[in-house]
C-alpha cells in the first residue's frame, strides 16, 4: 500500500542535504517510485554528491548549503539527511519559513530535540521528522484494518527483533554514547505512539554486548506503560550471530476483535533482507476464525520514505495544516526515548529478602 499522493504536490521541488547510504538506498529510490520532484543535492563530500546526482539524474549538485538556499524557490522542501548531531547547525543556516524534513533522530538527546523544536518555531518553519516506519506499506495496511474497527480496541503491541546488525556500516555510531534506542528502537517507540498515543511512563534496560565492545548499547527491553489493560513491549537483540534461520523481526498487534502479525524482513541478513509477510485474524461470532495472509506491495525500505515526504509535500501545498510527522508531534517520541535511557540508568528495584 502507498499513501495518497497529490498529483500537484509532485511539482514541489525537493533539495537534499546529505548523500550518504540512506539517501541512496531509501530517500531517492522512494521519491523515484512516487514521482517526486528531486532537484538537487549537497554533501560535504562533493564526489559523493556528484555520484548520487548521476545515479538518480538530479539536475544540480551544489558546492555549499548557502548556494542551495540561494537557488531553491520559496516552495522548496529541504530533505536533511545528516547525523542528528549536525541538525541544529543546519537549521540555523536554513531561511525563515523553510519547509524541512529532518532525518531521525530529532537530535542526539532530548535537550537537542527541544532546541530543534524551538528553532523551528522561532524561524516559523514547516518541519517534520523522518520517522518513516509509520508509513511502511504493511503499517498502512494495519492502520486500515484498525481504522475500520475490524480489530476492535487495541490492547497489545509487541515488537521483537532478534538479528545480527553490522553496525560498522555507520562509522559515526562508533563514537556515539547512545546507539540502539536512539538509532533503532526509536522507530518502534514512534510507531507505538502513533498507534496508541503517548504512554503514561516508560520502563527500559538497554545493554552492550561483549562481541561489540566498541559500541554503546546494542540490545534493549522497553515497556511503554498504557495502564493495566494495554501491553506495549519492544525487545531487540542486534547480536544474534548464529546464522539466518533463527533471526526474526516481527510486529504483533492485538485487539478485542482481531490480531495482526507482520514479519518484516528488512533486518534479516542485513543489508540483503528477506521477504515480509502480513497475517491477520478477525474474530467472528458463530464461526471459527482463520488466519489469513494479505499480499502487501512494497516494504519498509524504500517505500516507507514515500509517506514521510508526502506528508511534508501535502503540508507545503496547504492541503493539510501540519504534517502527521511534525516536530510538534515527534518531540513526544524523543521524550519517550529520553525516558527509556533514564529508566535504564536508574535501574530496577532490588529484591529484598
Would you mind describing this structure in some detail?
This protein is an alpha/beta fold and 353 residues long. The protein has 2 domains: 8-131, 3-Layer(aba) Sandwich (Rossmann fold), CATH 3.40.50; 137-293, Dihydrodipicolinate Reductase, domain 2 (2-Layer Sandwich). The chain is built from 9 helices and 14 strands. The longest helix is centred in the C-terminal third of the chain and has 20 residues, at 327-346. The chain is globular, with a radius of gyration of 20 Å. The N and C termini lie far apart (54 Å).
In the CATH hierarchy, the third-tier topology of the largest domain is known as Dihydrodipicolinate Reductase, domain 2
Rg calculated over all Cα atoms: 20 Å
Q: State the oligomer.
A: single chain
Domain module count = 2
Q: Which bin fits the share of residues in helices? A: 25-40%
Shape: globular
Q: What is the H level of CATH, i.e. the homologous superfamily of the largest domain?
A: Dihydrodipicolinate Reductase, domain 2
- Given this structure, which CATH class of the largest domain is correct? Alpha Beta
Strand order of the largest sheet: 8-9-10-7-11-12-13-14
The percent range for strand residues is 15-25%
Q: Spans with pLDDT under 50 lasting ≥5 residues?
A: none
Number of helices: 9
How is the main sheet built? 8 strands, mixed
How would you state the average pLDDT, rounded? 96
**Count of DSSP strands:** 14
CATH architecture of the largest domain: 2-Layer Sandwich
Distance between the termini: 54 Å
What is the chain-wise order of helices and strands? EHEHEHEHEHEHEHEEEEEEEHH
How does the helix and strand content classify structurally?
alpha/beta
Amino acid at each position: 500500500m502507498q499513501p495518497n499522493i497529490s498529483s500537484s504536490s509532485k511539482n514541489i521541488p525537493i533539495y537534499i542535504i546529505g548523500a550518504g547510504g540512506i539517501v541512496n538506498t531509501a530517500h531517492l529510490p522512494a521519491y523515484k517510485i512516487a514521482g517526486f520532484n528531486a532537484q538537487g543535492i549537497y554533501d560535504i563530500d562533493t564526489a559523493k554528491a556528484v555520484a548520487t546526482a548521476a545515479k538518480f539524474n538530479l539536475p544540480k549538485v551544489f558546492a555549499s548549503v548557502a548556494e542551495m538556499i540561494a537557488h531553491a524557490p520559496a516552495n522548496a522542501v529541504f530533505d536533511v539527511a545528516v547525523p542528528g548531531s549536525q541538525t541544529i547547525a543546519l537549521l540555523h543556516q536554513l531561511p525563515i519559513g523553510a519547509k524541512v524534513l529532518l532525518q531521525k533522530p530529532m537530535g542526539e538527546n532530548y535537550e537537542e530535540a527541544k532546541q530543534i523544536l524551538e528553532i523551528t518555531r522561532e524561524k516559523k518553519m514547516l518541519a517534520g521528522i523522518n520517522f518513516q516506519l509509520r508509513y511502511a506499506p504493511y503499517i498502512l495496511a494495519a492502520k486500515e484494518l484498525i481504522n475500520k474497527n475490524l480489530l476492535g480496541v487495541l490492547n497489545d503491541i509487541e515488537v521483537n527483533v532478534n538479528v545480527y546488525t553490522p553496525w560498522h556500516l555507520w562509522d559515526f555510531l562508533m563514537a556515539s554514547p547512545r546507539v540502539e534506542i536512539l538509532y533503532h528502537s526509536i522507530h518502534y517507540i514512534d510507531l507505538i505512539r502513533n498507534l496508541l498515543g503517548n504512554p503514561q511512563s516508560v520502563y527500559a534496560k538497554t545493554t552492550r554486548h561483549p562481541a561489540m565492545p566498541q559500541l554503546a548499547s546494542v540490545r534493549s527491553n522497553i515497556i511503554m506503560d498504557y495502564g493495566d489493560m494495554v501491553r506495549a513491549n519492544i525487545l531487540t537483540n542486534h547480536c544474534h550471530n548464529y546464522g539466518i534461520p533463527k533471526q526474526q523481526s516481527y510486529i504483533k498487534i492485538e485487539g478485542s476483535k482481531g490480531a495482526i502479525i507482520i514479519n518484516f524482513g528488512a533486518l534479516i541478513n542485513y543489508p540483503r533482507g528477506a521477504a515480509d509477510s502480513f497475517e491477520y485474524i478477525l474474530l467472528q461470532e458463530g464461526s471459527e476464525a482463520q488466519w489469513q495472509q494479505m499480499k502487501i506491495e512494497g516494504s519498509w525500505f524504500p517505500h516507507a520514505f514515500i509517506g514521510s515526504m508526502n506528508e511534508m509535500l501535502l503540508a507545503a501545498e496547504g492541503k493539510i495544516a501540519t504534517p502527521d510527522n511534525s516536530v510538534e508531534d515527534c518531540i513526544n517520541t524523543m521524550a519517550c526515548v529520553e525516558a527509556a535511557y533514564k529508566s535504564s540508568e536508574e535501574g530496577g528495584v532490588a529484591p529484598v529478602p
